[in-house]
Design brief:
By secondary structure, the protein is an alpha/beta fold. It has 13 helices and 13 strands.
Length: about 280
């Protein structure tokens, strides 16, 4: 690929518009967010929402474009504008200390909660009071890996499009439906009405995950409700669940962090569902 004759100026209105997306109020107003790095940008290029292509424009250093020509070609083919940029511009639009040379501007892609319910989901992760963006993105990634059908972020949780959340999802944000801003009571009531059993994950839960598995109660449609990193789930949220389940600690660890506990719970459900009727395949056969 020949070196482009002209790079976008750091003073360009396009650069200023992308830079503003670091702030939640601008993301919400424009319904746009930033995806950084080759993995996230590749997923954004391939994703299409109800309104069409998700990727709007792409900022790329010459070096990154030479390393990833397929992404550049696919971005152009999808209709996205591609801007070649130097390190100064990438530093302006990136939210990382060491940008990877590719920064995409994307349309919001969350799904209405009603659509999640209409899909008759069998495995759902509900982030009820998750405030750390890195944890939110990691749980989303775990849900994707476990074969979950959807993720719901309640109105008490962090912004899905926080740059740290997007990075921590490592592209999983583009793989499964995510509903946002749903009050926790509405989320629980809607999922229960759709035939989904509600399990609250809490280290002080009355029920034990191993006991649930041994009892054969986890093969049906299930939604796991995850709480705050520091103080878990408030009592009023616990009271909404059909059961409050703890992950057993067999060693001397004081507890598990949120993302690790979420991975254990989601994979336990995925295994139980697969064994109880072959309703899903989490790993390639």
């Amino acid at each position: 690929m020949a070196t482009p004759a002209e790079l976008i100026s750091p003073r360009s209105p396009r650069v200023a518009a992308a830079r503003r997306l670091a702030r939640r109020n601008f993301r919400t107003k424009e319904r746009r967010f930033i995806a950084e790095g080759p993995q996230a940008v590749r997923e954004a290029v391939e994703h299409r929402g109800a309104a069409g292509a998700t990727l709007i424009e792409l900022f790329a250093t010459v070096e990154a474009a030479e390393r990833h020509p397929g992404i550049i070609e696919a971005a152009r083919a999808s209709g996205a504008r591609v801007h070649y940029a130097d390190d100064e511009v990438l530093a302006e639009v990136s939210q990382t200390v060491t940008p990877q040379g590719l920064v995409g501007v994307c349309h919001f892609l969350d799904s209405p909660f009603e659509e999640v319910l209409a899909s008759r989901p069998r495995l759902v992760a509900v982030l009820a009071h998750v405030r750390d963006p890195g944890n939110a993105g990691t749980v989303l990634r775990c849900a994707d890996a476990a074969g979950a059908d959807a993720v719901v972020l309640t109105d008490a949780s962090v912004d899905l499009y926080n740059p740290k959340s997007v990075r921590a999802s490592v592209g999983s944000l583009f793989h499964l439906p995510v509903a946002v801003g749903v009050p926790v009571e509405q989320a629980v009531q809607g999922l229960r009405a759709a035939g989904v059993r509600i399990l609250a994950a809490d280290g002080a839960g009355e029920d034990d995950l191993d006991a649930e598995l041994d009892a054969g109660t986890m093969g049906g449609p299930t939604a796991w409700v995850f709480g705050n990193e520091a103080w878990g789930l408030p009592e009023e949220t616990r009271a909404l669940a059909d059961a409050v389940v703890r992950v057993p600690i067999h060693g001397k660890a004081e507890s598990l962090n949120l993302a690790t506990a979420a991975a254990v719970c989601l994979y336990a459900s995925a295994r139980a569902q697969r064994a109880s009727g072959g309703c899903r395949s989490v790993t390639p056969s």
